[in-house]
Please model this.
Amino acid sequence: MTSTPDLVIRGGTVADGKGGDLFEADVAIAGGRITEVGKIAAKGKEEIHAKGRLVTPGFVDVHTHYDGQVTWSQDITPSSQNGVTTAIMGNCGVGFAPCRPADHVRLIQLMEGVEDIPEPVLSAGIPWAWESFPDYMEWLSKRSFDMDIGAQLPHAALRVYVMGERGARRDPSTSDDNKAMAALAADAVRSGALGFSTSRTLNHRTSTGDFTPTLKAGEDELTAIAAAMHAHGRSVFQFVLDLSGIDEDLPMMLRVAENTKIPVSFSITQNDRAPQRWRQTLDTIRDASARGLSITAQIAARPVGLMLGLELSRNPFQTHPSYQAIAHLPLTERLARLRQPDVRKAILSEHATATDDPLFFRPNYDKMYLLGDPPDYEQPPENTLGAQARRQGKQPEELAYDAMLTDDGRGMLYVPFLNYADGNLDAVSEMLRDPNAVPGLSDGGAHCGIICDASFPTYLLTHWTRDRTRGEKLSIPFVVAAQSRKTALSVGLYDRGVIAPGFKADVNVIDYDRLHLHPPKVHYDLPVGGRRLMQQIDGYDATIVSGVVTQHAGKATGARPGKLVRGAQGSKPQMDAAAS
Model:
């Protein structure tokens, strides 16, 4: 090197994102790019001494819901606290553009219902300084963040924008509707959309109980949109399906992909009702890939689990009449009432009743755990509240009730409802190893009062490469490549996810031995004091975005070099280990 680097990371143990062995090296950065990896003599303007530290590319999270948060905040927490340097939003068909003023409330209700982001937060936080999707992108392009942000065109917003009330009530689209949606989809790609997303799950409903507008969208509609997008640039087609409809919906989605040549990405999880169905689905993907289709399965790094508690969106007693009578009270008053013996006796004597809330399950105490500190997401069946109650000669409801009263009413219960049919994570291990799979489904920015999964990237490193005791581990090079290079490639971001000269200087410096997740806690830091679940993380010495340190020793530096990513970046590479 002849010029002075802006930053040199000295002597770290490098996992370069390509999947090969770890090696010790210096990393030089200048102009937002990695310029050299090896033994570097030149002194940088800034230096990070990384001896004994793990140096990785920044993580690329392809499944988040920061569509609202990016409009009111420049700090994309909690993902930016978990080593993520690029987040892709606009998943599951929900988002806020395009949108006419008359439909603001409708899209807020949809986001509130699907992603559990409170309506007051969205109403207060979103400025609605746009109508079209290109306007939304242009507005976002003027903002800066602590990481890069990529956007997808959400089908629900597009459908309602073109079809109005007909779209919201899920009427079939006409030929003219399809042409109009296709034209707007093409505009979205030209403005920088990385993809298009849709949902066909009954679990996705508005806060008023209506199903998502995209639930039964026809193959002709989806084909028209996908073809228009792919004709105007590299984009990905992301979707969510129900297990109950997968035999019909998955073949249709693959036909759309085959007929339009658009890459597709969708979620695969293990479901208790059909615990081996994920194998069949991965086999279908392998067959499609062998035919030349570009198919990516998004895999959750651990169980998708509900957090239940008095301070949260749901708890096991929320349908009990005696609890409903006090549910409106502030937490401190509710806690005082719940501690009264007569109130406790009344609630415990009642039973959960049916509800159409897709995220309220009749309590199954043989699937309910205390998460613990440190949080343990792979506990054996004997740890369930049901098993504990049988050993103690009590009813499990008693244990759940008392657990929620701990920590001044902030105690939480954990219910893994996906990826835990076997009582372990062996299925997840196999899914993560599949060549067509990438880590996904963190839902960063969403499910503020019931799910806390934005820590998936950190969990992949801590649990899967170091802490797992109930099955095989994964290697550090594999995990790093999976959630940096492989995820980046899946959405057309060919310029990042690797520590090598010429690549974007998004880097993590990690104290691997100290890397640690704390239990989830409720924070009231959203607009109008809105609530969200967050986890403190120890062990990230530095996170670097475009060559600028954004997180140092677990604290935000205030630097915001992150930008809106407009469209595919860089040139499609030859296959490397991470992509294969």
